[in-house]
């Protein structure tokens, strides 16, 4: 199980270079960005300049906010500059954000659209690498023009891994069908991974005649240290569990009513009242709470071994005061 780091949502470009160097020196396997307060791609261009070993990935970039060709070009440049260390992580986001935050159309069929999107991106890459005509005619994207003037040409590392974000069975199966990896949402449990996510990946892989073992499972795990950390993850769970898109995770455990109550509170902006609705068993299912950094590796292995291939803490990497804890975690995880 590879241990990765996630860049804090508010981290600016001026901080990325030194942060990436520290992440690599500590021994993380990959450094991930997210599409929240900053562009997910730009920090990785800076990180690629300052590192030589660590993988660099978007976890995630919103696919439907961009054309497939635009994403193909950015990914191609990052893969070339990083000597093949770049991972393209894509997600769909939900309708409200696609339409109202990004001002883009919503097809109503996100899994089918994302399948076509991935095929379109790879078709562009194939045309650049081989010089063959670009002829992608899909149900949602038609990409058929690529003259030599606009082609960056072939490179040494053209096989760029594509990871897809997924919660429901359809997206997990799609990752098994067309992707190199699945990025698991932080609101998950070991049971959900074992009973829903992994079987869906197998179904998708079998549908495409692929080996399910080729699909890497990368997950961000909610983590708390001590009593204060436990209450912090309770707040995070309350926020995520209020989103109807993530309701299947609650349904599996019989917490459908809790999700509905949280959604009702969120609709009325009663955020401060929401954590009290999250019972302790829910915290224990969706998070790992340990007394200290030293105790955390065993707790993470107990929960995630055999279920996740890449693991990152839902805790931003960036505070130098945390470095001794990260060092302990990495040493004990890699030494297991």
Q: How would you summarize what this structure contains?
A:
This protein has 336 residues and is of the alpha/beta class.
Describe the protein's topology.
Elements: E1 2-6, H1 13-26, E2 30-33, H2 42-50, E3 55-58, E4 61-62, H3 68-81, E5 86-91, H4 95-101, H5 110-130, E6 136-137, E7 142-143, E8 162-166, H6 169-178, E9 181-184, H7 190-207, E10 216-225, H8 226-241, H9 247-253, H10 256-267, H11 280-286, E11 287-290, H12 296-304, E12 310-313, H13 323-334
Describe the structure.
The structure is a single chain. It contains 13 helices and twelve strands. With about 325 residues, it is an alpha/beta fold. The chain has a single domain (about 1-220, about 290-335), classed as TIM Barrel (Alpha-Beta Barrel). An eight-stranded parallel barrel has the order 1-2-3-5-8-9-10-12, surrounded by six helices. A two-stranded antiparallel sheet has the order 6-7. Strand 1, helix 1 (about 15-25) and strand 2 (about 30-35) form a beta-alpha-beta unit. It is globular.
